[in-house]
């Protein structure tokens, strides 16, 4: 597997700088971002301490769209699916997606997600280990089957990438193999933009080669010299340019995600929200 500190060096010319943001905004060429969403893993420790209080803080900041993440207390932070749905709705928020595992509890996971009324159910990591073409072909079969099961339950199945899917086997990028061997009607893709850029790839190239197959984004900025997430505008992600190409992606929802902090996570997610609002100006 690629050493995280080494693969960032590959980004080079593909690293997307944020310096052009003011010019893009002034020129009126910037596509307006959709309602800001947040991946709740971003505030995982805060949720462990106080679920309702933390969600209220996010709502007050202005986040409307949520993506849950599996926690020590389950997929819904200790709440039953319908209870969590009510907590969200009472705050004027929407649960659009959830990160889960494709494991022995999969059938219950699907049933619970259907109860919440969410649209997407996202496998958050590769269900089996092995950076080989044969393993990724097996995974693609699993994804197509999971997609069929989700469709029957009124859900859309999808997958979220990290960095390792962009390694090569027999000269082929393994992520591309997954895209080629899954049914677009059954498997959606949530592109973690930070990891794509960090591995030396260009998200817009993927939008162009696989149009409208990426309805979900993880909007994550990462430091230019190490694989550590940071606040928007402090890393190498050209957010303005990405939103200009949102139609190619087929974007429906995006979720702010930050995994590391130098200070208070709530202040960081507030900064990120305000940064996005400036793009709309």
From TrEMBL:
Residues 56-278 form the Xylose isomerase-like TIM barrel domain. Residues 1-27 form the signal peptide. It comes from the Bacteria. Keywords: Isomerase, Signal. The keyword Isomerase applies. PROSITE patterns: TAT. InterPro entries: IolE/XylAMocC-like, TAT_signal, TAT_signal_bac_arc, Xyl_isomerase-like_sf, Xyl_isomerase-like_TIM-brl. One of its GO terms (molecular function) is isomerase activity. It holds the Pfam family AP_endonuc_2. The keyword Signal applies. PANTHER family: HYDROXYPYRUVATE ISOMERASE, INOSOSE DEHYDRATASE. This is Sugar phosphate isomerase/epimerase. It comes from Adhaeribacter arboris.
């Amino acid at each position: 597997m690629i050493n995280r500190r080494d693969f960032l060096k590959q980004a080079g010319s593909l690293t997307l700088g944020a310096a052009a943001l003011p010019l893009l905004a002034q020129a009126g060429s910037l596509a307006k971002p959709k309602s800001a969403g947040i991946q709740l893993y971003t505030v995982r420790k805060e949720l462990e301490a106080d679920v309702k209080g933390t969600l209220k803080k996010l709502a007050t900041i202005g986040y409307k769209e949520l993506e849950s993440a599996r926690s020590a207390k389950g997929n819904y932070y200790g709440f039953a699916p319908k209870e969590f749905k009510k907590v969200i709705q009472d705050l004027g928020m929407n649960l659009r997606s959830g990160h889960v595992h494709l494991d022995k509890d999969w059938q219950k996971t699907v049933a619970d997600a259907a109860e919440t009324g969410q649209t997407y159910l996202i496998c958050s990591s590769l269900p089996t280990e092995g950076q080989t073409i044969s393993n990724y072909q097996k995974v693609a079969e699993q994804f197509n089957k999971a997609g069929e099961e989700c469709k029957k339950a009124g859900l859309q199945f999808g997958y979220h990438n990290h960095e390792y899917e962009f390694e090569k086997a027999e000269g082929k990028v393994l992520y591309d193999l997954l895209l080629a061997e899954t049914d677009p009607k059954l498997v959606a893709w949530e592109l973690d933009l930070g990891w794509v850029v960090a591995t030396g790839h260009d998200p817009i190239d993927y939008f162009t080669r696989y149009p409208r197959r990426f309805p979900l984004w993880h909007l994550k900025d990462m430091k230019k010299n190490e694989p550590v997430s940071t606040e928007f505008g402090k890393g190498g992600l050209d957010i303005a340019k990405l939103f200009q190409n949102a139609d190619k992606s087929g974007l429906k929802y995006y979720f702010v995600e930050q995994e590391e902090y130098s200070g208070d996570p709530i202040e960081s997610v507030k900064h990120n929200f305000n940064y996005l609002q400036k793009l709309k100006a």
